[in-house]
Amino acid sequence: MAGLKEYPSAAPAAGSNGTSRDVTTFLSVYLLLTLALPSYLTITALGSLGRPSTLWGLLGLSWWAFERLRRTTRLNAGSSAVRWALLGFLAAVLISYAVSNLQGIPPNESSPADSGLLRTAGWVGIGLLANDGIGSAERWLVLVRRMTLLGGLAALLGLAQFVAGQSLLEWLTLPGFSADSAHSASTRGDFIRPSGLATQPLEYAVVLSMALPLALTLALTDKHRNQAARWWPVLALALATILSGSKSAFIGAAVGIVILVPAWSGAVRIRVLGGLAVLLGIVYVTVPGVAGTARGMFQSMGNDSSSLSRTDSYGVAIEIATRNLFFGRGFGTFLPRYRIFDNGYLTALVEVGLVGLMLLVLLLLCAVWNTLGAGYRLFPAGSQARELGAGLAASILAGAVLLAFFDGLNFSVSAALLFLSVGLAGAYRGLHRSGERRGSWTGIRLPDGDPLRE
Question: Cα separation of 216 and 220, whole Å?
Answer without folding.
Answer: 6
